[in-house]
């Protein structure tokens, strides 16, 4: 993939990431192994939402953008400590990789239009000696970069090749780089790519049900669905919130653990769930209990689903709170619920129509989840476009949802950090 850019301009991202940060639009796509473990993320970025494609111009501008991205967003936050796959241009290869890119943490993707001339080959040898891993992006056996194969740790196919000669070309002469199939969007794609011999896979296939039919939703899961809907009511009082949580022993336990964590510095014992909720605060509790409920429902699903759902929920919450769309007013609590519910079809392996039937959501949120065109749906589609790295679509949808396109980068940066804190092992709920 090649979504990057060399341009930059002042941005409100600085309010999130510190002073002098570049206006950088960034998204990430998970890369998984054959056991569906996330081993890294490809980082997709450009300097402006209006840039339709990568437009490196042969100077060091691209290197500067990557440097700004790393300093603005923090590599560990973006990748959960996993590998970062980063596209590089020819000018960066031959001109030098920025020292902010640690060799043990990144995989440098050599774009498909870079030919294996003497300068490029020499640069690859130097990078390998420095400990960097290299990937060939959208590799084609008939291309001018065949001579780069000996330096490749990963070889990526832009789509599952129909011709078996692709795999033979990659593995000839005793080479055994990891083979990575991109655009794996369904479980059927995943199964086919595995049959073709691929070892790694890029896409959101784990977030889509294999079929449009699944097992019935269990009664306790229905309880959690109804709880999530009730928690999305911005007028919910502390007393009502306590009444909702009390029947769920595991949620009560989590609430008590959160209050007892070091983040709250509690010095006296509490005597009721109500007191715990008062100490945490109503709005943080609504978010946390929604995530705990989702985790309880998704315990047999792919772990990345919880990360993605949490990130999307926070992203939608941040944007909804900033929307000035005419007509139905958007609000943060509804945005959070919308984002959290938007992947329930994957959690339950059920059509969204079936999920919504069990959720007593308001008509506008239900319609949005089912694809109807309204303010909520425009917000969700904006977030989905941003996740794909489709910046021009995200920008257009942002405007239609009453948002400034400059809101997207800082809101996403906040969502990534918040989801990392929320979903890390042992997180009790400190990030409010």
Description of the structure:
This protein has two domains: 14-207, Alpha-Beta Barrel (TIM Barrel); 219-423, no CATH class. Helix content is 47%, strand content 10%. It has 20 helices and eight strands. The protein has an eight-stranded mixed beta barrel, surrounded by four helices. Strand 3 (83-88), helix 4 (90-95) and strand 4 form a beta-alpha-beta unit. The chain is elongated, with a radius of gyration of 23 Å. The two termini are 35 Å apart.
Gist of the model:
The protein has 432 residues and is α/β, with parallel strands linked by helices.
Itemize the secondary structure elements and their pairings:
Blueprint: H1 14-17, E1 25-33, E2 38-46, H2 61-73, H3 75-79, E3 83-88, H4 90-95, E4 106-110, H5 118-129, E5 133-136, E6 154-157, H6 165-171, E7 178-181, H7 187-195, E8 200-202, H8 219-231, H9 238-245, H10 249-259, H11 273-280, H12 282-297, H13 303-322, H14 332-341, H15 344-348, H16 352-358, H17 363-369, H18 375-388, H19 391-400, H20 408-423
Parallel strand pairs: 2-3, 3-4, 4-5, 5-6, 6-7, 7-8
Antiparallel strand pairs: 1-2, 1-8
Helix pairs in contact: 8-12, 9-11, 10-11, 12-14, 13-14, 13-18, 13-20, 17-18, 18-19
List keywords for this structure.
alpha/beta; 2 domains; elongated; 432 residues; disordered N terminus; 20 helices; disordered C terminus; TIM Barrel; single chain
